Records
---
Amino acid sequence: MRLARQGDSPNDQFSSQEVLSGDNGQFSFAHVAPGPFQLTITSAGFEAQPAAGVLRSGETYIVPPIVLAVATALTEVRVGLSPFEVAQEQVQDEEKQRVLGFIPNFYVSYAPDPVPLTSKQKFALAWKTTVDPVSFGLIGVIAGIQQEQNAFSGYGQGAEGYGKRYGASYANFVSGTFIGSAILPSLLKQDPRYFYKGSGSKRSRILYALANSVICKGDNGDWQPNYSSILGNLAAGAISNLYYPAKDRDGVGLTFEGGAIGIGATAGANLIQEFFIRKLTRNVPNNDPPKP
């Protein structure tokens, strides 16, 4: 209970006293000066109840019974997904994207508001890509073409030569994917995906696709040099020197040649993505970009 009263002078501030009621709800204030007063009764879980009166000299003022109302509980519930959960849903959509229904197209985001991936999600996407059955099949085709053309002749021919070419091609694929799309993007906080533009003039879309071979979105949403992809291509080229036939190794030259080829291949792939692949990809989210 809180009792407040005005002082004797108009310039005096309110003075107050507080007491606790007994188990029976009764309370009392002693040595209260005559005059008007304001009383506030509070209790946990109930609405505060005000009362007022005027105490005359020599009077014992009895406050009429007061009934406290139960306080109205205001509960605000906000339902929504965390950024991680939104990103996880978008990644799951991307993992369903397949060109012609079977070729993986995981590293393209068609979402109008893509959320940055966590390191765990970047590694999971790289793993999903490298162990996809279609990836094994495409590597086999590449190894077969190399054998037909007698590329890396030091591997020889026959089943043994084909196996070595297959192993080297798959090693290139795995190292390039993990280094350029998981390890470096996690360390440098960059997003390894291509973000489909789909709107604007043809010229702007061409420039956008080409630029995305050397720039990327950071996890902060800003565009920045694509160090992850560039360094990833160079690193994969350097690693390949460890298992290519000795006569096909070219040290630094092979490394930078492979890096340049990687950038060019990325630019070409981006152009195809921007203008053709979406039409051939199944399970693309239905979120067409706004018309120019």
---
Amino acid sequence: MSRHFEFWIGSRYVRSRSSNGFVSLISAISMLGIAIAVGVLILVLSVVNGFERELKDRLLAMTAHASIEGIDGAIVNWQALSEVAIENPRVRASAPFVDGQALLVFSEQLSGAELRGIDPLAEDKVSAVASTMREGQLSSLQAGSFNVVLGVELAAALQVGIGDKVTVILAEGLVTPAGVVPRTKRFVVSGLYRVGMYEFDRRLAFINISDAQKLYRKKDSVTGVRLAVTEIFEAPAIVREVALQHGEGVLVSDWTRRHVNFFRSIQITKSILFVILLLVVAVAAFNIVSTLVMVVKDKQADIAILRTIGARPMSILRIFVTQGSVIGITGTVAGVLIGILLAVNLETIVAGLEAILGIKFLAAEVYFISDLPSELRVADVVAIGTIALLLALASTLYPAWIAARTAPAEALRYD
């Protein structure tokens, strides 16, 4: 007998409108369960991928790929270090910087912040700070201008805008006949940036490196040199190579070490979510077992007739494997399409819900970023779809085997 009849009968059982509507309902529920489980798994992994991408992009926008700092917090001959770094073929650019802590005061508002002295032209080659500017320009940080660029959250906390003057107070004071007086300096707000991470937008301010050297009394020394490398994942090896070529005692760091906890937690979270949601897919797929068992019981007479007219046990098995496969494939394909549509349009959907409900799903001060990102990866979709199909196909074997063992005489005894 041709095998085409096996596929035809199996697919007919899926869409059959027999008197036992409960069996058809269970089949539909099985398909829906697989579709929802697969769609949710694709969506969740896309969101985790989006968080990983956004964190990496925003962290690298504000922090260089690698940095070399002095052991005592200062590098005097930093020009020689920069020359050594630039001579390395795997280093694209270098930029000196000065870091320090300060208290910013405006009217009755005050806030602690990290002041970073930079050379605007050199900084533009090692980071993307200039592209995050919302008001003003990073180039406004000219030597001797005593201008400052603030994050939008820090500016909101101080209630300042472009042109306002903030007072910078340092912990290190001046010794006078009247006692120790804190050192202060007024800076003019010349720009506002927004990177979308509360950690930076609320706590980091930029000034010119020359102004920072005067403010922190560093003379011609700097805190360190930041590097931009050709391969970001090779940053640890490259920065060590540059430090060894320089030959002096320094401290090296890179973006993977500085923010390792972020990326490690994301990878752990992604793995745990994948396993948990895969169990949901497995439960949905194994619903096919109960569906096919009920179908086998309902189709006892059909099985007996087929066996009587010459169908072999293997043909019966293929019929029910076909039915279960159709349920599994239909549910998986529907789930993949649902997951892709939701993942691709997630930001629009979330923005619409936030506008309708008047709430913010992600608070920037809690989740570091204020938008819900999504990044759909083909590898994840293929892996999820393949595993769902394999689980669905595995679920068909036992009920189909039971159907193949059905004895015609037993099935027709009471008919």
---
Amino acid sequence: MKDSKVVIIGSYNVGLSMKGSRFPEIGETFTADQFFEGPGGKGSNQVIAASVFGADTSFVGCVGNDKYGKDALAAYLNYGISTQYVKIEPSIHTGIAFILIDQQGRNMIEIASGANLKLTSGDIDRAEQEIKNAAVVGFQLEGDIELVDYGIRKVHSMGIPTLLDPAPAIPLKEDLYPLIDYIKPNETEAKILTGIHVEDQGSAEKAGKWFVDKGVGTAIITLGKMGTMVVSNDYSEYFPVRKVTAVDTTGAGDIFCGAFMTALADEKKIPEAIEFANHAAALSVTRFGVVESIPSIKEVKEFILKGVNKKNKKN
């Protein structure tokens, strides 16, 4: 593809993951079965996923001048991601995420944001030309909320579509919603933002309508193994997800975002973009890790085709 650019403004956290049979109790020391260290952070995961899926990508972020920061830059180079607007901040550590994973693939995550909080509005301004060339610009809420607010307003004023992955979910200014073209909360984040208990298609649609009523262009409510609900002013549609055996759900939402933005940059319509993202995320949870679990575009297309063939045989 490599025609339209996907720009991500967001976070990098090195992921330090441990997987065990269960989560430890409070005050308990528990032995893990596996340990893995790798690049992480919602923004970073999404830009790497977009690059793997074929998009021309650029990351606007901040890392420390330490081992983890150097590892981040090396990873971006490896994935062909532009690091022209990645700032190196020597006064503080690179962001770190500690991730615990249980036998069912569920996760618990704690983050020390570090250098992510040193990204400034000036850094976004310096990336203005890069943003002008973007098909879509992605944001998350792992960093400074005021910076995210500034970035969305700036990108919207330039006429470039915006996508917000509102994680971790925190209240947004009311006048920011109309500047968001796509918002992608999972069921937990949707509940925090809307007050609606999201547990099925009906409640997901209700939450989606809440966002649209606030002015969002399209609300994408992901429901994990239950699929995805998409709501806009024009329509509401539910997209089921293929059944898989999950071993690690960490980063699935980020891979969904990266796949969805790549499809948008490739001028795919929303239903096709959602189907691609659903299948990419579903494949990712069958593997351990985050970046390491991102499937190739060939694998995703084959997975989609298998589903189509299976459906045709039933019919």
